Amino acid sequence: MKNNFRILLAKQRKKVSDVHEATGVSKTTLTALYYERTKNPETETLLKVAKYLGVTLDELLTPEE
Predict the structure, then answer these.
(1) Model confidence pLDDT, tens digit, residues 15-24
(2) How far is CA 22 from its chain centroid?
(3) N or C: which terminus of the chain has fewer CB atoms within 10 Å of its end residue's CB?
(4) Which stretches does DSSP call E strand in the chain?
(5) Could you tell me the pTM of the whole model?
């Protein structure tokens, strides 16, 4: 899975710290997601991030070919 977290943040002109403050998800987790270092992020984490950004999980995650 490839995530579009970095792209979505750039489009909305938001920072990792904004997401952290709004969702309570740790900066470490969000940074790992941002740099695509995490292989299996928690579903709950992804749902919080997607909800905050106003996107669906499909828009946040893209299956790799």
Answers:
(1) 999 999 999 9
(2) 13
(3) C
(4) 2-3, 61-62
(5) 0.88
The contacts found for 47-52 with CB under 8 angstroms, 24 or more apart, are 48/23, 48/24, 49/5, 49/19, 49/23, 49/25, 51/23, 52/19, 52/22, 52/23
What is the C-alpha to C-alpha distance for residues 15 and 17, in angstroms, rounded to an integer? 5
Question: What residue type is assigned to position 42 of the chain?
Answer: E
- Local structure of 1: helix, strand or coil: coil
Contact between 46 and 60 (Cβ < 8 Å): yes
What tokens were used for 37?
A: 């270092």
Residue 21, token pair as written in the block? 């403050």
